[in-house]
Amino acid sequence: MNVNQFITRYRRWLIIVPVIVTLLMLLPLSKAKINPDLMDYLPDGIEANINNDKLEEIFGKFEPILIIFKSDDVLAPKTLNRIYQINNELKYSELVNDVLSIFETKYIRGEDGAMLVDPAVKYIPETDDEREQLRQELIDNPLAYKLFISDDFKYTSIILGANEGVSDEEIFEFINTTLKNNPGSEKVYLNGLPYLRSEVQAKATRDIAILMPLGLIIMLIFLYLSFKERRGVLLPFMVVIMSIVLAMGLMPILGYDLSLVAVLIPIMMIAIANNYGVHIVARYQELNAKNPNWTMVQIVTEALKQLSKPILLTGLTTIIGVMGLIVHIMLPAKQMGIVSSVAIGFALALSLLFIPAIMIKMKKGKPIKAYTTGKKSIIDNLLKWSAKVSIYNPRKVIYIFVSFMILAGLGITRLKVSVNLEKMMPNKHSLRVSTDIADAKFGGTKNINVLFEGEIMEPEVMQAMDRFETQLEEVEGVGSVTSLASVIRIISRSLNEPDSEFYDKIPDTRQAIAQYIEFYSMSGDPEDFEKLVDFDYTKAVLSVQFAATSIDELNRVEFAIRELVSQTPSATLVAGQCLVEKEMANAIVKGQIYSLIFALVAIAILLGLIFRAFSAGLMGSIPLMVTLICNFGLMGWLGFQLDIGNSLLSSIAIGIGVDYTIHLFWRLKYELSLGRSYVEAIQNTLTTTGRGIAINAISVIVGFAVLFFSGMMILKTFAFLIIFSLLLCLLCALILIPAITIITKPKFLLKNGKSISFNQ
Amino acid sequence: MKRILITTIAFLALAFQGVAQDAREITEKSTAAIEFEAMEMATNLYIFDNRGNSRERQVAVATRKFGNTTKTLMRFLSPADVQGTAILIYDYEEKADDMWVYLPSMRRTRRIVSTERGKSFMGSEFSNADMSRPNVDDFTYNLLGEESVNGKPCWKVEAVAKSRDVESEYGFKRRVSYVEKSTYLIQKSELYDRMDKLNKLMTFTDYRKQSNGRYFSYGMEMKNVQNNRRSEMKVSKFQLGTNLDEASFAVSSLEK
Predict the structure, then answer these.
(1) Is residue B219 in some structural domain?
(2) Please, what are the domains in chain A?
(3) What is the mean pLDDT of residues B164-188?
(4) Which one of B50, B119, B122, B251 would you mutate to disrupt binding with A, by most A Cβ within 10 Å of its Cβ?
(5) CATH number, domain with residue B195
(6) Does position A143 have pLDDT exceeding 70, yes or no?
(7) SS3 A619
(8) Cβ proximity of A723 and A702 under 8 Å
(9) Could you tell me if A84 lies within 8 Å of chain B, comparing CB atoms?
């Protein structure tokens, strides 16, 4: 039974089953939810995560949210009043767990034989003298200067944590209302992982709500312009909708939350899923124009006979490329690989079975003019030109491609891995600006914590923490190091005269340290120590705050810390959010490499099998290699860092890009089998199949271009890079591969294997 | 009719005034019921965190009033690390307290000037303000009603801080005390934070009548219902009056 008989016999089922599957897939959609927590994107058992959990168990979870205020002088009464009001509203809210700021920190000092403990800002200055006095006090106050107020007094910050069980949405709604209720001319920027999460949540929701309909509309327009016929629009469009529903419905069924990159899935479906249907509709229109007397069944049968194999093959290669993501380490990449390969498979099946099943019962449409008038478009002229250059100047073509590849490829040495999650937001975004401010003015946004275990009050342990502090503060990029030892030093300064041997020193005896602490607790808040040491003084944490814009800078600080830890028996654990982020960066690189190798090898093997020649696999991989090298090189030159978004890109680009080469080889083989010369074969191939390839590529590019409207930088970059990659794949298929063919005259194109004999 | 109404209003106004005065009177009487000119005691302070871990401090305390100034001397008896650490507090009627601390390991006395009395006392849930007698004029008083605590009929008296400064100084916005009718002894107090949310619960137990007719609570507990920590103070020895003279309460005597 051939395909045609199969379709005719099971026509009803071929229509009903997919429709029912799609309708059923609508049900789980309501359970789909976005998970903006990037930390969940790593698999379980990551060491950095385990260490963070251990530390959280001892000292509680504290995810700081940073609010930065900017003005010419933050000590101006108006500014200070506003920030004070905001500070209090935040502090007295039930949603907020803890607030740190210049209004909450203390000014501890020794003066005239007394230890003075005051709020860092006792009152809002009214006269200029008072303002300058406060300025001097803040400069002298190590608990405020450069921690909550910048050295140029243009910035001040409030740090707060949300209470347990308070959602990101609730806390930021409250913060925004508070800011709105206390208006002022000061600029306000937000930062912190919870803020990133809430922004990702908001932007991903917005992206799904806007980009998907927009993509669909653009696709409708594109299809209409291409076919000028209702069925040409509706049939491929139905496939797109059904495969999107399947993909998105599969996520909750498989227990996946929508990640930030899951926004890509519907867009990818819009770009890819219509490809196969488009070919069939195009062939139907062509056959209809050329054979006015044929019935619909004849046309559909012929179109399928010609197309089912190349469509199946290109579909398979795309699926294999996307499946490369399954070996990625990051969970969203894996999930995307699984879901989208199933959905592309679904789209492929729909195109080969569902569309024909509907089409055979349709009335014949009017022949489309474009096929009968033979009007030449820009694309046709460009294709003619590409045939000319690749046939007559093949070496020149190869030289140009090779030199471009080398030039672009040099950029790979500049390629960096992103460790800064805020980079996924647009340039002017509050997160980006506030990170820059925090890095420059408040010692950075990165944090590594070291756990000390043992008798914390023993001078040996306390002096070790003190040694960490002094040595790490020398390391480039480190902004501040805080531990119980810093507090002990502050106490020693306020307790002893500057000429005393005890001044600014960790005491030598356990008793003295205990008494310092007791002394402080007479005037301070027991909660001041809570974040630094546990209740029975057997575990203490030392926190290193620093700025790092690249993984190298992060490694430098981490290395310095680990070296000190290795020399200190009481330092038992190194943890920190940024270390999880580093693991994530590593996972991105490793995952990228795994999925790249998987996709390349699998596709080379598949090409080899299809064309029954090792050389076909090799030659077919050339466009992919050129594209990958240029893509990563361009990223290096343009300063795009490798991130979770674009690490998915190469597998997808490989999966889609290889289709062009397959179509090209297929037609070349057919042309050569008719006894034509290489020159003729290339000319014919480029002007016929070349057109289909180009239109196909453009439709995919148009689909992905929607991502330029995303609110997230990470997706915009993705769009730019995948479009660049696909264009390059297209150029390789239309110019480079023909040029190489002219020179090498590969044998596999001449072999007339049974599996590839088809009539085109 | 009109006349009746006016009379009623006048009567009600009088009644409220009467009640208000009662609330303040009750407070004054309850303060007087536990007032001492001088005393000495040994007390254990137990500090529990929210996981049940505990710390213990043993402190000897002597208090004596000299003129308008109440002077208190506290000395740590244990744990060993802080043994000998001493605190001297001068509680003036009209101005902020003075406080000195002596650290034996450094043989050094230092004065502490802190503006926040509402903060913790020795790292416990008690505040420094809880340790000294509140100024009656810092609050306005309302009688909220009557309620029994442990079978003892009590007045429910509310004290509301008159200003934000008072709130900071004492660390609460409002305090509701249950004052036993027959003895004017506070059985328990509820402290409400600035958000007017119940923050701490203070209970007084084991009141013992002293030779001067006043009472002293041998067991106090402060429970923070927001962070689930609590502290207890148990008096092991109590003696009315003290043999210590004014010189013993001098700053220079701390180092002796």
Answers:
(1) yes
(2) 3-39+198-420+582-756 (1.20.1640.10), 64-191 (3.30.70), 430-547 (no CATH)
(3) 90
(4) B119
(5) 2.50.20.10
(6) yes
(7) helix
(8) no
(9) no
